[in-house]
C-alpha cells in the first residue's frame, strides 16, 4: 500500500512539475490550425515592427509566435501572435 501511495504521489508531483514551466513562461495557445497554414515567423516580427516595436528575437511557443520586443520608451514586452492571421493574442511586460 505504501508503495502504491508513493508511486501515485510521484505521478501527481511529476505532472504538476511539467505544467508549471508552461504556465510560468506565458501564453502558448494561439491556434488549432496545422503548421502548413501558418504565416512565417519573419511576418510576425514584421507585424510587431509595424506596431511600433523594436524586435530583439522571436521563437515558436506552443501554437504561438512569441516575439520579444521593446517599445519606443525601451520597455520590454513579450508579444504572442496567432501564426495564422498574425493577430496579437497576448502581451506581457517583460
From TrEMBL:
InterPro entries: PepSY. Keywords: Signal. It comes from the Bacteria. Residues 11-91 form the PepSY domain. Residues 1-24 form the signal peptide. Pfam families: PepSY_2. The keyword Signal applies. This is PepSY domain-containing protein.
